[in-house]
Amino acid sequence: MSNFEHNLKKYADLLVRVGNNVQPGSRLMLQATLDDDPTIRRLVHYAVEAAYKAGASFVKVDWRDEMLTKIRLENAPDESFDLTDEFYFHARKTITEEGGNIMFMIGGDPDLLAGQDQDKIARMKKATGKLFRPISLLNDQGYGTWTIGAISMKVWADKMLPDVPEDERVEKLWDLIFKVCRVDLDDPVTAWREHAANLKARADYLSKKQYEKITFSAPGTSLTVGMPDNHVWIGGGESNNKNVEYMPNIPTEEVFSMPHKYRVNGTVRASKPLNYGGTLIDKFSITFKEGKIVDFTAEKGADALQKLIDLDEGARFLGEVALAPSSSPIAQTGRLFYETLFDENAANHLAIGAPYRTNIKGGPEMTDEQFYAAGGNDSITHVDFMIGSTEMNVNGVTKDGQIEPIMRGGDWAFDIS
Ligand code: ZN
Ligand code: ZN
Questions:
Q1: d(CA 142, ligand 1 centre) in Å
Q2: What is the distance in A from the centroid of ligand 1 to the CA of 68?
Q3: Is 41 exposed, middle or buried (0-12, 13-18, 19+ CB in 10 A)?
């Protein structure tokens, strides 16, 4: 077996064992982006094999052809755009409720939907967001496990690596994926468990601190993020209601929590472009007042950003504040991936829209009213955008007004022992 093939197998194994942490007797639904490249079929086959070896009772593979969305946008009658894939919804809800596993292997063309009708895209997102929201809430309550990994595809590699000779791009992107996912190490599974323990220690430190506010400063950014009482920082994966530890994202480098819906003030400048559903939003700044987005500017994709914040009331407020150091392997590549899974793990970020209810103590058990009263936002969307850079400093402000360093120059400024 070639070195590449060996890594492909190790990667599949990592996604199944550390990502989903498939348990004996559970079902796995594996959703993979379809491509002509046979490598991707082999990766999926390795993952299916690994899942059965881990004891999965049944693996359902769901190939996703992203061109179908484009064909629909260009050809379907108007009423189509308020509909969504209910067949898929029912399958996913069933697997989640029974405590099964969902895996997403994502890839594709970051510019697929560039130039398409933003209204139609927004309606499709709204229809999907509304129907699928209960599944996110089930995940927050600890049902099942889910994980996202990525696959190298030509359309993606072409966008991301124009400086690399064309026939080497797909391989180069695989190299990058293997590297930032630590697949090139001898024992990636153990390496991930250690890495996860480190992130957990950072998250626990911050949770214990219970900072009243987190402040971000960088060129173009002066932002205060007020934190709700009893907020919880999470990093290095989650555990479900059967105490199975799993990793929603591979790779992951972030430690994240929930801002108080009404206590975010100031202006933040994005440090990387945001690929929102196939449209690139670039060089943008957002201003918040008492949590609400009251102004923004964008040199590129302003229309898409407007559509995003108009999706619903909660899309004008934040749902996540996350810290990811600029020393992370992803940041070290110096590459923009045009894919949130990677880019959000290379920089501090915020998310517009819904929070994870696990980010507040007792959150998953709260009624909606209790959760909103505690400072939680609600939305059908959750979109991360990057704000971190090596020029960013982050402080924590304690309840008695002490200012403590969290990050300096984009890197952690506190020790964990
Ligand atoms: Zn995040
Ligand atoms: Zn997020």
A1: 18
A2: 28
A3: middle
> Rounded mean pLDDT of 371-392?
95
Long-range contacts of 155-159 (CB under 8 A, 24+ apart): 155/107, 155/108, 155/109, 155/112, 156/107, 156/108, 156/109, 156/110, 156/338, 156/339, 159/109, 159/110, 159/111, 159/338
Interval between CA 321 and ligand 2 midpoint (Å) = 8
Q: DSSP 3-state assignment of 29?
A: strand
**Cα 295 from Cα 96, distance rounded (Å):** 38
* Residue 316 and residue 293 in contact, taking contact as beta carbons nearer than 8 Å: yes
Closest ligand to the CA of 254: 1
Per-residue pLDDT, averaged over 244-268, amounts to 97
pLDDT tens sequence across 128-137: 999 998 998 8
Q: In what order do the strands lie in the sheet with 349-353?
A: 234-235, 255-257, 318-323, 349-353, 382-386
Query: Which ligand sits nearest to residue 384's alpha carbon?
Result: 2
Cis peptide before 251 (omega within 30 of 0): yes
Question: In this model, does residue 417 exceed pLDDT 90?
Answer: no
Q: 1 pLDDT band (50/70/90 cuts)?
A: confident
Query: What pTM did the predictor assign?
Result: 0.89
> How many angstroms separate the alpha carbon of residue 72 from the centre of ligand 1?
30
Instruction: Tell me how far the alpha carbon of residue 243 lies from the centroid of ligand 1, in angstroms.
Output: 22
In the prediction, which pLDDT does 15 show?
98
CA 236 / ligand 2 centre spacing (Å): 14
Distance 1 CA to ligand 1 centre (A): 36
- Residue count of the chain: 417
Distance 357 CA to ligand 1 centre (A): 14
**Cα(234) to centroid of ligand 1, in Å?**
10
pLDDT-derived band at 10 (thresholds 50, 70, 90) equals very high
Question: Of the bound ligands, which one is closest to the alpha carbon of residue 382?
Answer: 2
**197-204 mean pLDDT:** 96
Q: How far is the CA of 91 from the centre of ligand 2 (A)?
A: 24
Mean pLDDT of the chain: 95
Beta bridge partners of 145: 101
* Ligand that lies nearest to the alpha carbon of residue 199, given by its number in the listed order: 1
pLDDT tens, position by position, 73-106: 999 999 999 999 999 999 999 999 999 999 999 9
Query: How far, in Å, from the CA of 25 to the mean position of ligand 2?
Result: 30
